[in-house]
Amino acid sequence: MRRTILVTLCLGSAMALSACQKAADSEVDRAIQSVNAIDDNNLSDVMLTVADPNEAVAYFKRTSAQSPDRIDLQRGLAGSLVRAKQYTEASAAWSKVVGMPGSTTADKVEYADALVRAGKWEKAEQVLDTIAPTHETFKRYKLEAMIADGNKEWKKADSFYETAVGLTTKPASVLNNWGYSKLSRGDFREAERLFGEAIQYDPKLYTAKNNLILARGAQRNYQMPILDMTQTERAQLMHTLALTAIKHGDVSMGKSLLQDAIDTHPQHFEAAVHSLNALKGV
């Protein structure tokens, strides 16, 4: 009898130990999975921000193929393709994301952005039209403004640009786009103001500086503005202003600005020399 009780107790203890071991193993497995998930998320963040764009594409192609149902990896692939400037593939990747369970309105905005970059403006407009007006983000309204611009819907474009500017602390790029829109419409004074504002937010934005020169030149104002610029940039901007002056028939002013550009440039300024020689008939 005692032996039977002892055997029963031993078996019970063994089963309990086995159950405890399984529970412990399960806890360890869950912990490892959690750590792996954290590592995956950290690596994904790195790939989408500081990693080489092509390496990021290769990473997300590999990981998303291993786990095709994970929308975070599909997003990573789509985003990395945009960073790598593979816009046609990026459009297809974002199209896949928006069709997956768990996709968001923000995914649709990214899809529209990829379509714009790929030159598929009509499709981008169709995607944006499916987004509720309550989704108010900088990127959404920046895209809306660009599409309205392309359609020459000026009032809508201005409204969207204004809204986009109010939704970001870094509006330099959208102010530059808005200024270029005004420049294309012939509103040179307003374009100049917007380019100047863009430069205030980002003093290194050369495209805004060059556009500012175009806006001033269009008003036949050939004075160089006071800007934070390198010597090379100053020479290049003088060259732009010179060509604008020549386009308006102010050839003497153009020649003078070309010579200033050549003298200002720290190296041989081939483009300016060529333009000046062409004017002189050399």
Automatic annotation (TrEMBL):
UniProt keyword Transit peptide, yes or no: no
InterPro entries: TPR-like_helical_dom_sf (IPR011990), TPR_rpt (IPR019734)
Signal peptide annotation: 1-19
Name of the protein in question: Flp pilus assembly protein TadD
Annotated keywords: Signal, TPR repeat
Source taxon at top rank: Bacteria
UniProt keyword Signal present: yes
Positions of TPR repeats: 172-205
Species in which this protein is naturally found: Aliiruegeria haliotis
Gene3D superfamilies, per the entry: Tetratricopeptide repeat domain
